[in-house]
Structure formats: C-alpha cells, structure tokens
Amino acid sequence: MSLESTLKKRNLTTYKLVKMRKQLILLALILPFVSLAQQTLTLDECFDLVAKNYPLVKQSELIENQSRLAIEAINKDKLPKLNVNAQATYQSDVTSLPIQLPNLRLEPPNKDQYRATLDANQLIYNGGMIDATSKVKEAISKVNQQQVEVNLYTLKNQVNQLYLSVLLLQENHNLLTAKEKQLNARLEEVKAGVKYGALLASSEQVLHAELLKIRQQFIELDFNKSALIKRLSLLIGKELSADVNLTLPVVIMSGVESARPELQLFDLQKEQVAYASKLISKSNLPKLNAFAQGGYGNPGLNMLDNSFNTFYMAGLKMNWNVFDWNKTKTEKQSLEINKQIIDSQKETFELNNDLELINLQSEIDKIKDLISTDNEIISIRESILKTAESQLKNGIITASAYITEFTNLYESKSQMNVHETQLLLNKIQYQITKGTYYKN
C-alpha cells in the first residue's frame, strides 16, 4: 500500500470520527428538548396529583394535629391539680358565746381575717369519663378526616371530564393531521391535472380553500386544548406543557361491590354516636378524688386561736349523682334518633347512587351501539370517497363535489372519536360512581 493511499485512509477515518462526534454532541443537545416536548401524563397520575396537591388535602394534617392536641389536653385531667388561693376579708360580725364561763376567757375571732392555701386534687376514679371523652374526640377526628376524603373523591369526576376533553381534542388533532395530509396528496394530483389541461384551475383553488379551513380548525383546536390544559394543570397542581401527550386510559369494568368513601363516612358517624352514648352512660357513675390542703392564716383551723397559724388537711371526696331526672335516658334517645337519621341518609345516598349507575350503564350501552353504526358509516364513506377520488382525477366531478364527500368521511370519523371518548368517559365515571375505580 502506497503512502498516499494510507494517508487518504487515515484522513477518511478521522473525518468519520469527527462527524460521529458532532452527531453525538448534537443528539445530546436535542434530547432534553425532545423529552420535554414529549411530556406524557396518565389519568391515574392526575388522580394521584389532585389527591396530593389540592388545597383541601392540608386539612387532613390539621385535623390530625387538632385531635392529637385535644386528646392530650383531656388526658391531663388524670394528673394532680394544684391551686393557690389567697383571701383577706372583713366581716360585720363574728361568732361569740352569749355566756361567760368561770375561769375561762374566750376572745372572739377578729373581724378581719386572712388565709392563703395550696390545694392539691388527684382524680382516683371517675367511671372512665376521660377515656370515653378521648374516644369521642377520636371518632370526631375520623369523621372529619373521612369527610375530606369524600370531598377529594368528588374531584375525580372533574379530573376525568377535563382529561378526556383534552384527549378528544388530541385525537381530533391527529385526525385533522391525517385529513390535511390526504388533501395535500389530492392537491398535488389536481395541480398536475390543471397543468396539463385535464382539470380546471378552480379545482385547485377549491382544495386550497379547504386546506385553509383545516388550518383554522388547527388554530381553534390548539386554543381550546391550551385552555383545558391550563384548567387541568391548576386542578392537579402540576405545570403541564401545551403539547402534553395524554395517554388513553384502559378501563376494566369491575363487578366488585360499591366502595364509595361516603359509605365509610356514614359508618364512622354511627360509630361517633355510639361513643357519645357510652360517654353519657358514664356521666352518672360515682367520682372519687383525693385532696390535700396546706395553708397559713388568721385564724387557722382553730377558730378560737386569734393569731396567724399554719394548717393542713387531707382526705377523700366522692360525688355520685344518683338521680338526674332521666336526663341521661333522654340524651340517649336523642342520640338514637341521630343514628336513625344517619341510616336514612345512607339509604338515600345508596338509592341515588344506584339510579346514577343505571343511567350511566344505559348511556354506555347506547354509545356502544352508536360506535358500531359509526364503523359501518365510515366504511361506506371511505368507499364513496375512493370513487370520488377516481372521478376527480378524470374530471368527471368537480373539486367541490369531492370536498363534500371528503368532509363527510372525516365528519363521520370525528363523530366516532366523540363517541369513543364519551364511552370512555362514562365507563370511568361509572367506576368512580360505584367506588371501584382502580389503577391499571
């Protein structure tokens, strides 16, 4: 091999390496933008995001903290209580003996008296009132937490409608792109026909006008999609690009029993009533406390000693309300009525939910039949358009007649897109209404 050929081979190799390096650098620069342009989002991700980012979610933590602090405060009643008391009084009269005893001089107490004490009280038994009160607070917290879950669950329908509205526009955009591509192909054929005098120049103008209409439709679609994406972005708390790609959800109709969060809410409300009833039952049980008092005053415990003295006392105190005029019984009856009201609300909810499910199932069955007819219509329209294309090439029909058949076909396809999206919307809404929507 000559020196010249060796140098040429080395130069070629170097050129290829440099070219490859440039391509890799260019690819590295482009990839981030490509990945950004191809932002994708699923319906399940939207549900997760709204459950994490919606402002109402903050209430869950606040309710939990509030319940913890309330129970902590209630349990402090088990600890001893210390009170410092002080008083100075002047009274108009004091106790005195109306007779004089021989060899005994009794001085009456001073009309100005002073006393300072430190009192300690320790609960020994109160019938379990503290624990019962804590249970009621826990039950109230659970009810409030579940109410937040119910409110968040209702957002799923809003997310579903927005998501599928964007998805419909996305599918229509793809359909419009295919329509534009096919019309451009016909335009090239018509141009050739006009050039060789086989077709009138007006045929080309008609197709140009139809392409301009398609551009207008693109503009309208883009603006509508942008507005919906902004609403969806605000609802789920995540910034979405204008060209975000929404993936098509796969829905599996489940025969599982209803699991709506409202049903659990009703059960928790009844549980709260049950704990409140137990608390009322314990209110009439005897209560036992130990107490101690130490003090300094004039007089002390000895009323006959008219001077400042220290003193103390200790003991037990019991309190038992043996008769409350049937107050406890009346309060329990009121709670029982409350429980019946909750049962009535639950029955009403289940009835309305079942009615909604029947309506949705009817809508699903209707749309399935419409889609079946859509397929037949599209098949016929495609056959008609194929004939019209041949006739347009041969100058048998005008471009306007061709556009009519062309538009008919794509309107049928667009209608099928609407029906398919409606079917998906109703299927997901059925699962949400039933409370059995699960991630795929």
UniProtKB/TrEMBL annotation:
<keyword id="KW-0472">Membrane</keyword>
<keyword id="KW-0813">Transport</keyword>
<dbReference type="InterPro" id="IPR051906">
    <property type="entry name" value="TolC-like"/>
</dbReference>
<dbReference type="GO" id="GO:1990281">
    <property type="term" value="C:efflux pump complex"/>
</dbReference>
<keyword id="KW-1134">Transmembrane beta strand</keyword>
<dbReference type="InterPro" id="IPR003423">
    <property type="entry name" value="OMP_efflux"/>
</dbReference>
<dbReference type="GO" id="GO:0015562">
    <property type="term" value="F:efflux transmembrane transporter activity"/>
</dbReference>
<protein>
    <submittedName>
        <fullName>Outer membrane protein TolC</fullName>
    </submittedName>
</protein>
<keyword id="KW-0812">Transmembrane</keyword>
<dbReference type="Pfam" id="PF02321">
    <property type="entry name" value="OEP"/>
</dbReference>
<dbReference type="GO" id="GO:0009279">
    <property type="term" value="C:cell outer membrane"/>
</dbReference>
<dbReference type="GO" id="GO:0015288">
    <property type="term" value="F:porin activity"/>
</dbReference>
<keyword id="KW-0998">Cell outer membrane</keyword>
<comment type="similarity">
    <text>Belongs to the outer membrane factor (OMF) (TC 1.B.17) family.</text>
</comment>
